[in-house]
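Re: the request from the purification team.
They wanted to know what the chain is likely to look like in 3D before they choose a buffer screen. I agreed to run a prediction and write the result into the notebook, where they can find it.
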Amino acid sequence: MENMLHLTPSRGLLPDEFIFSPDQLPPAISAAGVSLPVVDMSRSRDEVRRAILDAGKEFGFFMVVNHGVSEEAMRDMEAVCQEFFQLPAADKAHLFSEDPSKATRIFSGSIFETGGENYWRDCLRLACAFPVSDSSKDWPDKPQRLREVVEKFIVLTRGMGMEILRLLCEGMGLRPDYLEGDISGGDVVLHINHYPPCPNPETTLGLPPHCDRNLLTLLLPSLVPGLEVAYNGDWIKVVPVPNSFVVNFGLQLEVVTNGMLKSIEHRVTTNMAVARTTVATCIMPAADCLIGPAEEFLSEDNPPLYRTLTFRDFKRIYNVVKLGSSLNLTTNLKNVQKEI
């Protein structure tokens, strides 16, 4: 617990274990004329379906507005997260764990094995079955309203995510409920990411380049910039739109569609002036769900490009960010699967 960054007094210098060489930190482009698409979900179903599929094919990321999650639920979630990280250490010590198998825990750094590099992030991980039930009993009891706020937030964000998956299915010519059932029926996982002010943000990262291992991620972003997305060999800075969510495809969606939809690498930078807090809602498959390229995406000219694995085995195998000599654009699922 003593390693938690948000509990450490302000530092004048960045500790050596957080520092990367300049060649490992390729800068993001200025993004002149390049930004994530914004999908207005209040438009006609046909327009939204087409916009989501087009944005997903080009970027693997997009923002959504008028998405059905109330502004009150978003602000309550932001407030309770800030309250949690402002609690005294004694109120959070029992939650600290470096065991990645624990459903509820607070930890520092990355969930990926990266060869010893440290990342400038603290994270509260919350998970529960859906519908929310007794599986939330291990959640923090402080702040007092945390459970109520988080349960409401999960119901709304997961509902939005499932609607996006239905729209994607329709856009790809599949039945709307194609991605319902075990492939989206695992625990809902929340990563509440907290990036404290960093004394030398130019030499470190809040998160390494990575792809999400789940099916779909819905990020409640901070208005403080930090997220960067790989695009055409560079990184583009994501500038959030007020009251939006950032949506990105997980690796399981790439596998099921046999690469028609891609899970795209992204990373997080830090800043010197102000803390940044985000909430990622992850729609996960059930652990024993067997996931491989769906028959609808296969043909004689388009054979399977990915192995079929249970989600449990996939997570066990795919937990390493292959940094190599550079942190830029290093994750390739097909190559990783060929090596196992």
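For the purification team: The radius of gyration is 19 Å.
Please add any questions underneath this entry.
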